[in-house]
Design brief:
Number of helices of chain B: 8
Helix content of chain A: 25-40%
CATH superfamily of one domain in chain A: Fumarate reductase/succinate dehydrogenase flavoprotein-like, C-terminal domain
Largest interface: A-B, 82 and 79 residues
Strand content of chain B: 5-15%
CATH class of one domain in chain A: Mainly Alpha
Strand order of the largest sheet of chain A: 5-2-1-9-17
Structural class of chain B: alpha+beta
Largest sheet of chain A: 5 strands, parallel
Strand content of chain A: 5-15%
Oligomer: heterodimer
CATH topology of the largest domain in chain B: Fumarate Reductase Iron-sulfur Protein, Chain B, domain 2
CATH superfamily of the largest domain in chain B: Alpha-helical ferredoxin
Chain lengths: 637, 254
């Protein structure tokens, strides 16, 4: 299989404009003749569905929650990047592009990243016009904050609820189109298979989560904005419902899965407290602007933080990375936290935590300023832990947060299956091996508002679409596949709950394919996952029926897919004999313990092809070329 | 600690439903309320009883998906706390808790503690937006927003659409929810051109969904997990009156 990224050439600042000019257009009067199925209603899916409908397309939008407003984008706290240079601090589109390519550890496509940086300007404008209440200066101008991995202030924010406000903007735009009859919304509906007819994505099979009804929806193109797969780790900062099912089942229909081992650990989460723990809560990375990260110098120091004098504290990020200090990128911050805990200097009951201390910032700026900046985060911390972070430093530990990998897409955001588009976190495109803070919101909205609505027209205008009947063999086959999976889960009649399998899988993946990986561990994980998967299908216990609201059944289907994906993640991590970004292979590090990339051998996108059950997947490589930002070892010292 | 739970079990919309007593014998103070229900559900599964259905997703108090009545109070006893953020350290050994779904005609029960809040989406679809299509926006700093307005707008925009306000209101009024959106957009310059149509259309839709009227009881504000203030309702009423007096945008008398 030849992977064509359709990445344009020429001067980088002209590529998107030139490319757009050469895309075919759909006549305004013809747009309503096309039906586009958008799966997912977060920043990517919601903004795409709204914008496509504004353009005149017929849109059907699907989400598993009870309302499109609940998509997990809503939980993003810190902010959204845009190269506005409102602060005259040397920012530019080129610098955002440069920072993102470098932050991604040189494993992303230059053309995609440049486009993302350029579009960042339009996103802010669009969101302001929608009524997103961004933070303002007293003058009425937009305020900014700085964020990890950057030395300029380019992050726009709405208190600690930026994701919520941006999502509500997209949701309101979507509801406007629903009200106008241009979008038909299907809440509490989960996509369970992709319908491919004559090599083109032409529909999806869904399950109505209230009635259990299996239905097929036919369209001219399918857009997946279904988010990331971080819940493969069981404990993650993702919402409980986040899953890989839509993209995994599309993968099993032929879509390539790219860089599955590129997963991101977020350095500032509330540590685990017990076995019943159902999820981890993230504290925005923006806290690192004013909070200082430290552990005691001595091992096993059990004194309370206030009893530990200044000279006996190790502000390890400031010590090791004087230029960036507490604002080093996420992977660097996370690995260093793990390292000091492995040394026995971790704090709290479990020893798996480091302090994030606001004492100095409160002294310097006053409690009110800190409260204004992070009030809701402090409240949340106090609610969960019962401790007051204005008095005592927070305890934090890294947790899985975002997945850079996802379905492979070309420059037009189309997968290798014609007519199947993948946007937002669900694709692999823009973040390389590591995503910078405040860039996920940017990418989701760039894809949904500005990229996809332009590129999808080219595909629609260039192809003829025969009417597909629901009696078509491909539709019947996909439907019966879904029915069979449901039946097998309900008929297993085993003894173990879905969650117990999910937990066990999560522990394997976290241990061997988490913050640090090595060959022996990955091989061990690969020997554990297939037997666990077999056991799952034999021993899982799902009560209730298929024709009703059945939350255990929903989870069982998702966990079945995680059990397959986990294996691919480990395979991918095993083949990549280098360290880069979120993928840290212990065998490949510099003498200082930093990630050692191997550009000569691994400067490619690893795109995996599914070859059927029990068959090993086949690796396709898309080579990466860097004409503008020349690969160098990342240094934040 | 041990907690006694009485939980509303209702198989589907057609079922009559009833309270069922359960015991949660080993509850840790560090658990969240939903984690306690997770553990209960695991126990029920082992016994071959169907787990309790409840809505939840982010478990960090922002998605608005979770919520039920705990001893008659929406989201339970802690101020400005969603059910998923409520921790068991606020309860004591032997406590007896009654869990029921949101009760309102406009929120029909789907199953157990799960209700249908589609009415909220339809209210937003009726007018809770700024009609700006993608691509037509001027520079973000072209229109200045006084900081105070931005802050007050953000206070209202923090609503998570969970429905606790409706569930707690003796009239099952959606006024706090509707007014929060009206104030969020009405306090910003971007929201001005459609301000009058918006309030009229949204209020009309809320009436159509058979939410009750506001009689200034204030229970909604007391249980709102995001601290949305009653003053938003005053803001909405002023806008509604102004739009009616001006006779704009096809205002219907009701």
């Amino acid at each position: 299989m030849q992977l064509d990224s359709k990445s344009p050439t020429g001067p980088i600042e002209k590529r998107w404009e030139d490319h757009r000019f050469h895309l075919k257009l759909v006549n305004p009067a013809n747009k309503r003749k096309y039906t586009i199925l958008v799966v997912g209603s977060g920043l990517a899916g919601g903004s795409a569905a709204a914008t496509l409908a504004e353009l005149g397309y017929n849109v059907k939008c699907f989400c598993f929650q009870d309302s499109p407003r609940r998509a997990h984008s809503i939980a993003a706290q810190g902010g959204i990047n845009a190269a506005k240079n409102y602060h005259n601090d040397g920012d530019s589109v080129y610098r955002l592009f440069y920072d993102t390519v470098k932050g991604g550890d040189f494993r992303s496509r230059e053309a995609n990243v440049y486009r993302l940086a350029a579009i960042s300007l339009n996103i802010i404008d669009q969101c302001v016009a929608q009524g997103v209440p961004f933070a303002r200066e007293y003058s009425g101008y937009l305020d900014n904050r700085s964020f990890g991995g950057a030395q300029v202030s380019r992050t726009f924010y709405a208190r600690g609820q930026t994701g919520q406000q941006l999502l509500l903007g997209a949701y309101q735009a979507l509801e406007r189109q629903i009200g106008a009859g241009h979008v038909e919304m299907f809440p509490r509906t989960e996509m369970l298979d992709l319908v491919v007819v004559d090599g083109k994505a032409r529909g999806i099979v869904t399950r109505n989560l209230i009635t259990g009804r299996i239905e097929t929806h036919i369209g001219d193109a399918v857009v997946l904005g279904t988010g990331g797969y971080g819940n493969v780790f069981y404990l993650s900062t993702n919402a409980k419902g986040c899953n890989t099912t839509a993209i995994w089942r599309a993968h099993k229909r032929g879509a390539l899965f790219a860089n599955p081992c590129f997963t991101q650990i977020h350095p500032t989460c509330i540590p685990v407290s017990g076995d019943y723990q159902s999820k981890l809560t993230l504290m925005s990375e923006s806290l690192r602007n004013d909070g200082r990260v430290w552990v005691p110098l001595k091992k096993g120091d059990k004194r309370t933080p206030s009893q530990i004098p200044e000279a006996e504290r190790d502000y390890f990020l400031e010590r090791k990375y004087p230029a960036f200090g507490n604002l080093v990128p996420r992977d660097v911050a996370s690995r260093n936290a793990k390292q000091v805990c492995d040394e026995g200097r971790g704090v709290g009951e479990t020893g798996l935590a480091v302090y994030l201390d606001f004492r100095d910032a409160i002294q310097r700026l006053g409690k009110n300023v800190i409260k204004e900046r992070y009030g809701n985060l402090f409240d949340m911390y106090q609610r969960i832990t019962g401790e007051d972070p204005y008095q005592e430093p927070m305890r934090i530990y890294p947790a899985i947060h975002y997945t850079m990998g996802g379905l492979w897409v070309d420059y037009n955001l189309m997968s290798n299956i014609p007519g199947l588009y993948v946007i937002g976190e669900a694709n692999f495109s823009d973040h390389g091996a590591n995503r910078l803070g405040a860039s996920a919101l940017m990418q989701g909205l760039a894809d949904g508002y500005f990229v996809l609505p332009n590129t999808i027209g080219d595909y629609l205008a260039s192809n003829k679409f025969e009417k597909v009947e629901t009696s078509h063999a491909a539709v019947r086959e996909a439907e019966s596949n879904v029915v069979q999976i449901t039946r097998r889960l309900l008929e297993a009649k085993g003894t173990r709950s879905v969650d117990s399998f999910h937990r066990e899988l999560g522990k394997i993946v976290w241990e061997y394919c988490g913050m640090a990986r090595n060959e022996a561990g990955l091989k061990h994980a690969l020997s554990l996952i297939p037997p666990l998967r077999e056991q799952f299908w034999r021993e899982v216990k799902v009560l209730g029926g298929g024709e009703e609201l059945n939350q255990s059944l929903e989870r069982a289907g998702r966990v079945a897919d995680f059990l397959e994906l986990a294996e691919l993640m480990c395979l991918d991590a095993l083949q990549r004999n280098e360290s880069c970004g979120g993928h840290f292979r212990e065998e490949y590090q510099t003498p200082e313990g930093e990630a050692a990339r191997d550009d000569a051998h691994y400067s490619y996108v690893a795109a995996w092809e599914y070859r059927g059950p029990g068959q090993p997947p086949v690796l396709q490589k898309e080579p990466l070329a860097f004409e503008y930002v020349h690969p160098a070892q990342r240094s934040y010292k | 600690m041990k907690i006694i739970l009485h939980i509303w079990r209702q198989k589907n919309a057609a079922d009559k439903g009833r309270m069922v007593r359960y015991e949660a014998p080993n509850v840790s103070e560090h658990m969240s309320f939903l984690e306690m229900l997770d553990v209960l559900n695991e126990d029920l599964l082992v016994k071959g009883e169907e787990p309790v259905a409840f809505d939840h997703d982010c478990r960090e108090g922002i998605c608005g998906m979770c919520g039920c009545m705990v001893n008659g109070v929406a989201h339970g006893p802690r101020p400005e706390t969603t059910l998923c953020q409520l921790h068991m350290r606020h309860f004591k050994d032997g406590d007896e808790l009654y869990l029921e779904p949101w009760r309102a005609k406009a929120f029909p029960v789907v199953k157990d503690l799960v209700v249908d809040r589609g009415a909220f989406d339809r209210i937003i679809a009726a007018g809770g937006f700024v009609s700006v299509s993608t691509g037509s926006a001027p520079d973000g700093n072209a229109v200045l927003v006084p900081k105070d307005n931005a802050e007050r707008s953000m206070d209202a925009a923090a609503c998570i659409g969970c429905g606790a306000c409706v569930a707690m209101c003796p009239n099952a009024s959606a006024s706090l929810f509707v007014s929060a959106k009206i104030a969020h957009l009405g306090l910003l310059p971007q929201g001005q051109p459609e301000r009058e149509q918006r309030v009229v259309a949204m209020v009309a839709q809320a009436n159509k969904e058979v939410f009750g009227s506001c009689t200034n009881v204030g229970e909604c504000e007391a249980v709102c997990p995001k601290g949305i203030k009653l003053e938003n309702i005053a803001f909405m009423n002023r806008d509604y009156l102004r739009a009616n007096l001006a006779g704009r945008a096809g205002v219907e008398a009701d």
